[in-house]
Amino acid sequence: MAKIIVITSNIAPYRLRWCEELARFYDVTIVYTKDHDYERDDRWLQKQSEYCRIIKLKNDRDKYDALCPDVIGILKSDPEALVIFDGYGPKTNLLGLLYCRLKGRFTYTNVDGYPLGEKNSPLKLKIKRYIISHLCTGFFCSSEATREHLIENGADPKNVHVHNFSSISRDAIISEPLSQKQKMKIREELGIESRKPIVISVGAFIPRKRYEDLIEAVLNCKSDCELYLVGGKPTEAYLKLSADSDRVHYIDFVLPDQVYRYYQASDLFVLPSQTDVWGLVINEAMAEGLPIISSDHCVAAFGLVEGNGIIYETGNVRELTEAIDRCLDQSSNRSMSKRSLEIIRNYTIEGMAERQLPWIREYFGNKA
To answer: Which residues pair with 298 in a beta bridge?
Structure first.
């Protein structure tokens, strides 16, 4: 069986599911560099698989950007394997890309998106362009917007393939929006007493998420709604912002196989991030039939929000407040929910693999 080597920093659940989809057709080895992620709870990461071999590279510091020279040995061990690098930023990936380029070895680099909203120096942008145009050869990427970004930075258009990035499986997408009665039943099971419309956001309580904007918007909107922030321990700053209100609720980290219940109990999802390379929580919320509000610094919004929500200017609390009121309007909310489900059916892990397979088969066909 032909072999694929996937080199990544850590193994997210959706990344493992994608590799396991490829393992239906190929012998897949996942090589990773670190056991922790400062933005996520360790329980979220995966380290075992029934279908893929998993190798941990030596990384004493367990840092995202640590250089793991052992990657060269992995690449040398099977020169006929197709190598897929999960991103071009980590030092270990850069070392591997450089080695493969020097050996004339074609590789794919998996690119989830790009950092909208981040300001980079001219030197950093020049280095990025050099990596994309000279070290990387082929790309699998999240969306047409990401494809255009890669081509603008020197990627060969014929080697850049869109796979509709996702973290959800087909069977995780509900068939139709839940009724109010169904939502109330789920709330009861979760211990949520409110019968008011619920606005939800999911993620770590870190500065770039800009939850302060969302808290302020919910407290100022005309809709009699409540906000649930799911994903960790709130900072003192967030607690201070919401101290005088009973409309803001904080839920600690919830495992991936349970968080969908909080989406189902809610009426609207908001991602107010200052920057997000993609924003997979948008995919996840849409799979549960939620309308979406996103800042214009989340790449996912430009592929997934079309008739099912609103994209607003990052940091514009007034615009966000108005968007919440519009999306919670009962008739708009129902139609947006249906539209979310229509769109997200084209964004699944199985679909990602299916879109990649023709190009992977072509690679091995050319090697024959």
So the answer is: 276
Q: How far is CA 106 from the centre of its chain?
A: 26
How far is the CA of 297 from the CAs of 40, 166, 276, in angstroms?
A: 20, 18, 6
The residues with which 55 forms a beta bridge, in sequence order, are 31
C-alpha distances out from residue 207 to 121, 203, 287, Å: 21, 11, 26
d(CA 345, CA 69): 40
Q: 3-20 in b/e burial notation, b at 16+ Cβ within 10 A? A: ebbbbbbbbbebbbbbbb
**Token duo for residue 252:** 């600690």
Tokens of residue 144, six digits: 């047409």
Residue that is written with structure tokens 């099971």 in the block:
189
Integer Cα distance of 341 and 172 in angstroms? 11
Place of tokens 């407040």: 321
- Non-local (6+) Cβ contacts of 346 within 8 A are 164
The CATH classification number of 171-344 equals 3.40.50.2000
Beta bridge partners of 198: 226
Question: Looking at per-residue confidence, does 118 or 275 come out higher?
Answer: 275
**CA–centroid distance for 245 within its chain:** 31
Task: Tell me the pLDDT band of 62, cut-offs 50, 70 and 90.
Answer: low
CATH 3.40.50.300 for domain 3-166+348-367: no
Task: Judge contact between 31 and 74, C-beta under 8 A.
Answer: yes
The closest of 115, 116, 195, 126 to 154, measured between CA atoms, is: 126
Which part of the chain has CATH 3.40.50.2000? 3-166+348-367, 171-344
Region of residue 109 (left: phi > 0; alpha: psi -120 to 50; beta: else): beta
Q: Report the distance separating Cα 295 and Cα 275, nearest Å.
A: 9
pLDDT in tens, 118-173: 888 899 999 999 999 999 999 999 999 999 999 999 999 999 999 999 999 999 99
Q: Where are the alpha helices (DSSP H) in 142-193?
A: 144-152, 180-190
Average pLDDT of the chain is 93
Residues 6+ apart with CB under 8 A from 249: 226, 227, 228, 229
Q: How many CB atoms lie within 10 A of CB 277?
A: 20
- The 3 state secondary structure assigned to 263-283 is HHCCCEEEECCCCECCCHHHH
